[in-house]
Write a structure and sequence with these properties.
The complex is a heterodimer of chains A (422) and B (87).
Chain A (H helix, E strand, L loop, with lengths): L1 H6 L9 E9 L2 E2 L1 H9 L5 E3 L12 E3 L6 H4 L10 H16 L12 E6 L5 H13 L9 H4 L4 H9 L7 E3 L5 H14 L4 E8 L4 H8 L29 E8 L1 H6 L7 E10 L8 H5 L4 H14 L8 E3 L6 H15 L5 E3 L12 H15 L1 E2 L15 E2 L4 E2 L4 E8 L3 E8 L1
Helix pairs in contact in A: 4-7, 8-14, 12-13
Chain B lengths: L7 H12 L23 H15 L5 H6 L3 H10 L6
Helix pairs in contact in B: 1-2
The chains are: A alpha/beta (422), B mainly alpha (87).
Amino acid sequence: MSSAVSTKSAQSTSAPVVTGLGVAAPTGLGVDAYWQATLAGRGAIGPLTRFDATRYPSRLAGEIAGFDAEAHIPSRLLPQTDRSTQFALVAADEAIADAELDPDRLPEYGMGVITSASGGGVEFGQRELGLLWSKGKDYVSAYQSFAWFYAVNTGQISIKHRMRGPSGVIVTEQAGGIDALGNARRQIRKGTQLVVSGGVDGALCPWGWMGQLATGRLSRADDPAGAFLPFAEGANGYVPGEGGAILVVEDAEAAAARGATRDYGRILGYAATFDARPGAKGAEDDQLAGGAGLLRAARGALADAGLEPGDVGFVFADAAGLPDLDRAEALVLARIFGPGGVPVTAPKTGTGRLIGGGAALDVATALLALRDGVIPPTVNVAAPAPGLELDLVTEARPTAARNALILARGNGGFNSALVVGA
Amino acid sequence: MSQSTIDREVLTQLLRESAGVEEGVDLDGEILDTPFVEIGYDSLALLQVTGRIRREYGIDLPDDAVSDAETFRSLLDLIQKAPLIAS
């Protein structure tokens, strides 16, 4: 064992292991609360309360209710952090504690932080830019210098836990949570012992809301049970939410050497693709309703993992909630697994789409599903729309699966896929 | 001369509200001559509090002078000797 550890600094080829999880989600703050709600199919989509959205065309969101920042965040960090950064710090604290990690006992340059983000501390930034505009520069917080920035969650986690190894931020809209984990794996293969990764996001303020509205993909429904219905006949857009997950990803040998006790599973395969610009799509895109890029990502992740489709026990879908995008994803899954050939779920129907945090939460949830042998349900969707050949999981379902595939798409052409194994 | 009403108690409160307090640090304790870095305050924290002092008390403190003030006592001294902004 000791010889393996002493030579690992060069390169590592074995799959990295996830040794700690932390979750901040509308359906539960903390892994246990979130997982129980998810298994029970409890959703948290409701009317926006963070600001008055009554005059906006979309008025529902997945909010984390009742968050007491002062109870969770050190006093020095309160004035300098956006709400989404506070969620990221809480999730990172949970993941690091769950991994039984004492950063003071490990080399600070051997631990990195790589998270996904979309706009950074958008609510913080809106407040300070509002002060700049209405009152002048003397009224802007000194902390605006970094609190708005999309790398801020990575930076605050890095500072708080003294992790100074390879670090960064991935901005690929809603594919980001998977891309961050793919990059964490890359750094671990290059010799970094451990990366705190995943993503936590949220911008439920007018500025952030405008950015989401501009995609044209938001549901305008007012009924929380009828707003985000991926794969359903009534699919009418998605509902944004806040939150995400942080994962401690470690080199397997290094984790064993430090006596890590948790083992949620391994990152076996990863691939990311970018869609061709509209009009430049080929024949395969015509057959797959624009899903050729997603197909390449999913197949790439399977090939990277060295697995066949039959080795995958269930799929966490991107679940856009728009008929054309849902159809493309269903066609891609049917192409790989055969019609209805694999159980497919989308627990994000309970939280809304968490932008930079969503895919990370999906990966964490898939690992919990492998651990407990149960696929959590898609909520609010009774059955797939006619014509979609999909085995959609709408009640918690036992599984003996050893491996899972997680898909994510980000607005702008991002497709990412991750394969995890128990 | 400044008509400042900022004394130790007020500055402590302003620091607490603007930048928080490092865990394990007692701002009411023997910290007057302890370097700011040792009680958890960096230059941004000091800019945050001096910005508020400028807005609420009309006392303008040059950024250079603030960064030269390495302790609570020297910052308080700087504040109490600073001229008021004409308003």
